[in-house]
Amino acid sequence: MRRLLVIGIIVLVLFGAGAIALAKPETAVATLTVSEGQATVKKTRTQFGIWSSETAVTLTPGTIVTISQGDVITQESGSGQLRLQDGSQIDLTASTTLAVDELVITSSSYRVQLQLLAGKTINRVVKLLGAEDYFRVSTPSSTAAVRGTLFSVELLSPTSSQVVVDEGIVQVSMGTDVVQVGAGQMVTAVLGQPLLVVPHNQPLPVNPNHIYGRSGNPHDTPECQQLIANRNDVRTSHFVTHAQQHTNRTPQPGNGNS
User: Fold this and answer.
1) What is the pLDDT of residues 125-141, one digit of tens each?
2) Which CATH number fits domain 18-201: 1.20.1250.20, 1.10.287.130, 3.30.2350.10, 2.60.120.1440?
3) What pTM does this model have?
């Protein structure tokens, strides 16, 4: 009889905890919509603070799902839009994986921390953030923090990423190196190299080999090769500046230097 009483109390406690959980429904602070292609959302939930469970939800065009802190979104193909309840929006391109590390949006607090694991996001932050608020997008090589703007973040490789700003100002940090990137500017963050802010309003009209030369040319330094690898994302002025710097340090044939 005593054993049955103990079991009954345990069942009652668990039932009561479940009732409390049902009485406090999860607040929807963000929604993900797939415009085209397919996306997968991995959700990890803790049950009663004892154990956690993971589920995966597959989305097709027109499907909408609630996104919460701890979710990981993978836009396998096509494109999708992550909309926050304040009106801010994060566009996900194909082959993008985004982890929602922190997502707190209330009348008194605004804290959004996203981690870009692959691909590219275009971020439209409409809220004028307070002194203690933040919206951050991190990659393995950099962190972009904003206070209301339009910008994109792309992971180029495990050690490099790129931030392009169309409106407002974005603070980009890599270790102790911090730069302010304004509208019409961009920065490519490569681990081990300083952050360099350059314009992004002109396409690259020339083949980088015409500037740096081929194998054996003194311009073929690791720094130059990194820029060539990212040639679709950097601008002519960036290449020319580095080419001139290396040319000025390199003796030229026929100038009397041995």
Assistant:
1) 987 777 888 999 999 99
2) 2.60.120.1440
3) 0.66
